[in-house]
Amino acid sequence: MVQSSSHFIAICSDSIGETAEAVVQATMRQFDLPNTEIKRYMNVRDEDELRQMMEEVADRGGLVAYTLALPELREAIKEEAVRLSVRVVDVMGPMMQAVADTFNNDPFEKPGLLHRMDEPYFRRVEAMDFAVQYDDGKDVSAILRADIILLGVSRISKTPLSMFLAHKGYKTVNYPLVPELTPPAQLYEKLEGKIFGLTINAEHLLKIRSERLKVMGLPNNAQYASMERIQEELAYANRIFGELGCPVIDVTDKAIEETAGLILNDLLR
C-alpha cells in the first residue's frame, strides 16, 4: 500500500452521500488535519464499482465512510475492507440495526430515501428559493411571509445561515442593520418568536471585514473596516434588538450549524 503525504477520506453511498459527508465534516472539525481530501463516490450500485473505489482508497492510505442501503453492498465493502486492510465506517448501519431490534421492524433497504420527492422535499426547495430571492433585504414584504427573520450587521454570516435554515425547510429572510437606514416597519408587527438578532465580537468582525476588503482589492483603511464604525454598527443593532425584544445570538467562533441549532431550539420550544 502506497502511503500519501495528505489524508484521504472517501464517502461511499448508493445515493448522493450527503449524510455520510455531514458526519465526516463534523468529525474533522475536531482534528488539525489541514491536508485532508474528502471525496464522494455517489450512486454506487454494483460490486465492481465498489471494488475500484476501495482499491483507490487502499492505494492512498485512506479510510471510507459509507451509507449503503443494499445488504449485498454492505457485505461487499466489509469483505473488501478485510482484503485491502482499509478502515471503513458504517455511518447508518448501527442506528438502523438499533431501530430494527428495538421496535421489531425491518428497514426498507432502498437507496436515496433521504432525498425522495415528498412533501418535506418540496418544502425545502420552496424555502431555498425563498431565501435566495429575498436575501439581504431585497424585498421587505417577505418579512411577513418568513418563518425566520435574521437581523444583523454586514458580514455576520446572515446569508449562509439563511441558506442552511432553508435547507431544513424554513423560509428565512435576512435583513442588514445599518445606522443610516430605518428598519422596515414590518419588523414591528406581531412577529414574536420569528425574529433573531445576530451579534459578534467587534475585533472578530474587524478581521472578517479587513479580509473582505483585501479580497476585493480595496484599501484596508476604509471606514467599513474601522473599529469605530464596527462598534457603532453593533451598538445600533443591539438597540434595535432591544426595541424588538428578540433573542440575540453571539455568532463569534460559532459554526453555522451551531447557530442554526440554537435558533431552531428556540423556534420549536
Automatic annotation (TrEMBL):
Record: residues binding ADP: G152, V153, S154, R155, I156, S157, K158, T159
Enzyme nomenclature, EC number: 2.7.11.32, 2.7.4.27
InterPro entries: Kinase-pyrophosphorylase, PPDK_reg
Keywords of this entry: Kinase, Nucleotide-binding, Pyruvate, Serine/threonine-protein kinase, Transferase
Entry's Gene Ontology molecular function annotations: transferase activity
Catalytic function, reaction form: N(tele)-phospho-L-histidyl/L-threonyl-[pyruvate, phosphate dikinase] + ADP = N(tele)-phospho-L-histidyl/O-phospho-L-threonyl-[pyruvate, phosphate dikinase] + AMP + H(+); N(tele)-phospho-L-histidyl/O-phospho-L-threonyl-[pyruvate, phosphate dikinase] + phosphate + H(+) = N(tele)-phospho-L-histidyl/L-threonyl-[pyruvate, phosphate dikinase] + diphosphate
UniProt superkingdom: Bacteria
One Pfam family it belongs to: Kinase-PPPase
Family to which the UniProt record says this protein belongs: Belongs to the pyruvate, phosphate/water dikinase regulatory protein family. PDRP subfamily.
HAMAP family tied to this protein: PDRP
PANTHER family cross-referenced by the UniProt entry: PYRUVATE, PHOSPHATE DIKINASE REGULATORY PROTEIN 1, CHLOROPLASTIC
Job of this protein: Bifunctional serine/threonine kinase and phosphorylase involved in the regulation of the pyruvate, phosphate dikinase (PPDK) by catalyzing its phosphorylation/dephosphorylation.
Protein name (record): Putative pyruvate, phosphate dikinase regulatory protein
Organism the protein comes from: Paenibacillus terreus
